[in-house]
Amino acid sequence: MLQLAGELARRAPRRAGGAISEFRRSHAHGRRFLWREVGLEPSRLHYSPSVVAYLRAQAADGRRIILASGSTQEMADAVADYVGVFDGAIGAIPPEHLTGTRKAERLAGAFGAGAFDYAGNSSADLPVWAVSRAGVVCNASRSVLRRACEVTHVVASFDDRRWKGPGLQSLLAVIVRS
After folding, report:
1. Across residues 28-53, what is the average pLDDT?
2. pTM of the model
3. Same domain for 111 and 33
4. Cβ atoms 68, 107 nearer than 8 A
5. In total, how many domains does the chain have?
6. Contact of 77 with 68, CB cutoff 8 Å
7. Judging by DSSP bridges, how do beta strands 173-176 and 116-120 pair with one another?
């Protein structure tokens, strides 16, 4: 989101205040505002090559892959369509901010607690890992990796942070085992 905010400030400094107002309403409103104002295309984001390769391998093994994003449904759908590995997307519907326990509840309700693997990258993903069958840790700090190992069985961990371009997307995903 910082990449989007910076681009908006460069392009239309007077509109940047609108982003602050929208973020005060909710994170989902703020993200949607930035997405629409900047007109960011999913092709301009940088995706973690290791995570994309892992998700493609999981899909090739017959698993359903769902993008689970804290961004709005509109943004999640656009990224899922662009990347091409996802069978669908779950995103926030403003004013909802789909992270942490909200995301855990939504995914457990959709797929069943303990019936999916979850690829995440931050401490906000700990509640989701806690209700998943297994975890995949993507470009996270050592502290987050350690804490993820405490709440779920971590089956894979990736660190592309040295590769990291602006706006590296780890592609938080649900992997549904068949």
Report:
1. 77
2. 0.80
3. no
4. yes
5. 2
6. no
7. antiparallel
